[in-house]
Amino acid sequence: MTEYTTVSIPKELAARVEDTIEGTTFSSTSDLVRFLLRSIVIQHERSGGELSDAEFQEIADNLRDLGYLK
Fold it and tell me: Cross-referenced InterPro entries, in alphabetical order (predicted)?
């Protein structure tokens, strides 16, 4: 059985995520966050445990576009 933990995000961001996932296969904010985190971890593992500056910047830009970073 998989155990879970809670990650808190601002309510304003949660509302934006809900708008973003409307009409997609993501059924919740948690689904999208799990997808994003898995994608980042997989990229990290494939790069031998280190992200290049370009990869890090791409991830940061994507998170910024989604409102996770300022």
Answer: Ribbon_hlx_hlx
